[in-house]
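Mods, move this if it's the wrong board.
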Amino acid sequence: MGEQQYGIDSSRLQAYADEILEAHQLGCQIAIVIGGGNIFRGVSGAAEGMDRVQGDYMGMLATVINGMALQGALENVGLKTRLQSAIEMNKVAEPFIKRRAVRHLEKGRIVIFGAGTGNPYFTTDTAATLRAIEIGADVILKGTRVDGIYDSDPEKNPSAEKYQNITFEEVITKNLKVMDMTAFTLSRENHLPILVFDMNKAGNLVKIIKGESIGTLVNDN
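Not the wrong board. Structure tokens:
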């Protein structure tokens, strides 16, 4: 949304495209899962009396719209992309096929995964974790509005303390909100590190790839 109340902010899209281009130029294989909350949230719809399953499918379609917008922005800066959807819509996206996704990555294309897992009751976090495991990703980079994981909400508590590194066990013990529990459990069971960082700060993505200490890393150790 950027600074807007809803919808897609073209300047925010451009900023993301520039960040991803620079990261790609470092030689990284990049796959992206994008949410749809700027257009519609299934949970919010359900809270207002809408059928939860119907609302979740609407949310999945919103992620495809965002995926198409990001795809356009990435191609405008010269990147080759593929958009894969968990719900078949062949006019706008390929169906998700694991081997095809991996092949695209090997050829230097940016792969965008849309429509979540294709099933209601699963969040975008779960979709990101599932796809990361399927394609053999090294790490999940979870871009948020804050610069890592804190012991309390830094937007509400100015004295909240940030963790640089934390284990999966500590996250559970301290009841910290990193991802929804399904996504978090998937990451933990598959030993897939999660790095939470501020995606809206220019240069952060590249700094992470270069090994700088940005955000908070969640892993086994």
